[in-house]
Amino acid sequence: MTNKTLLNLAPGKNGTTSVFEFLSNHPQIEASNPKEPQSGFQREFPIVTFKTPEKYYKVWEKDNDVYLDGTPGILCSTVRFSQEITKTLKFNKYKLIYILRNHLKYYTSLLYTNGIIEPLLYPEHFLYSDQLDRAEKNLGKENIFVVKLDEIEERQKEIFTFLDIDHHTFKFPHLNSSLDANKFQGRGPYAQQKRTYEGFNWLKEFHARVQPKNGTELFIKCRKLVLKDENWLKEYFEKDKILLKEKWNVEL
């Protein structure tokens, strides 16, 4: 892995699946198979972690310049965890593409898709600026590319420059793994991957209990929950926007 780059995407629920498929089209980027080798929710594949390097390297089928691990946020979850990754693996560079979108949509997705309520209990830990600070302490600011989800396609030249690879032009796919993973297009391995509940009966039961067939009803309930507390959360959102502008030169 000498002179090679490990690339990661973050945060989860902000379009990482779409960006993964988009980047996997580039001939100099090798996408991991499965998409999220360090995620326990894809039980049809054995979980592979960075703690077993030789097994971990096998999630990429061939040699390339950039190795994309689609497990969201492994390089910005905690400073200690990220440092363990960079110290254990033998990549020359570690880079992160950090994706932004409207705070309300982000929080609603966390609530809706995973039933996560922590964003309402500990909102300060889910702010973009806080996650970016953790990533910067380990990776350095120069190895982090911050971009809004709806600007991925128009800024692809900047992204490929950031990754030190050739410029290509691709159409950005708008995918949602929670809708239908079997309909994905593209050459990325996630295009052929199926999600199962094997080993996660509790999750299957939870979804059967709270999610209607089309998901719309629960989505509306979660959105109302966030909206109900929006005035309380607004101070966090506004602070986050200021920090993003001041430090990362991004207006959200």
Characterization of this structure:
This protein is α/β, with parallel strands linked by helices. It has a domain at 5-102 and 128-195 and 240-248: P-loop containing nucleotide triphosphate hydrolases (Rossmann fold), CATH 3.40.50. Helix content is 40%, strand content 10%. The protein has 10 helices and 5 strands; from the N terminus they run βαβαβαβαααβαααα. The longest helix has 19 residues, at 230-248. It is globular and about 50 Å long. The termini are far apart.
Write the layout of secondary structure elements.
Blueprint: E1 5-10, H1 16-24, E2 29-31, H2 53-56, E3 66-69, H3 79-88, E4 93-100, H4 103-114, H5 118-121, H6 128-139, E5 144-148, H7 156-162, H8 201-210, H9 216-228, H10 230-248
Parallel strand pairs: 1-3, 1-4, 2-3, 4-5
Q: What is the CATH class name of the domain at 5-102 and 128-195 and 240-248? A: Alpha Beta
Class by SSE composition: alpha/beta
Continuous helix count? 10
Helix content: 25-40%
Q: Work out the radius of gyration.
A: 18 Å
Instruction: State the shape.
Output: globular
Order of strands, widest sheet: 2-3-1-4-5
Q: Would you count the extended β strands for me?
A: 5
**Uncertain ranges:** 177-200
How widely separated are the two ends? 36 Å
Biggest sheet record: 5 strands, parallel
The H-level CATH homologous superfamily of the domain at 5-102 and 128-195 and 240-248, spelled out, is P-loop containing nucleotide triphosphate hydrolases
Q: Beta-sheet strand percentage?
A: 5-15%
The string of secondary-structure elements, in order, is EHEHEHEHHHEHHHH
Q: Which second-level CATH architecture of the domain at 5-102 and 128-195 and 240-248 applies?
A: 3-Layer(aba) Sandwich
The CATH topology of the domain at 5-102 and 128-195 and 240-248 comes to Rossmann fold
